[in-house]
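Bit of a strange request maybe. I'm writing a small parser for structure token strings and I need a real example to test against, not something I typed by hand. Could someone generate the tokens for this chain?
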Amino acid sequence: MENFNHILLFRTDIKSEEDKQALQPLLDKNKNIEQWNVDLDDEDFVLRIVSYTLKHDQVIEMVQDRGYKCCELT
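Reply from user aminoacidic:
Good idea to test on real output. This should exercise your parser:
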């Protein structure tokens, strides 16, 4: 069975392409983030981050510091 602990999922209020672009510099410059995306078509506006070192609470703090809601999706 494959381990997917490096894929972090979050429910957010990143609802538009403009919101996504506002976070892009923050997420792109973070060397601990291998890949990220936001599903703007999902009702939970799911933020998916691939990282082998970041923890959920670190990502939540980063996103909330930019004024967006973010919580772990379980």
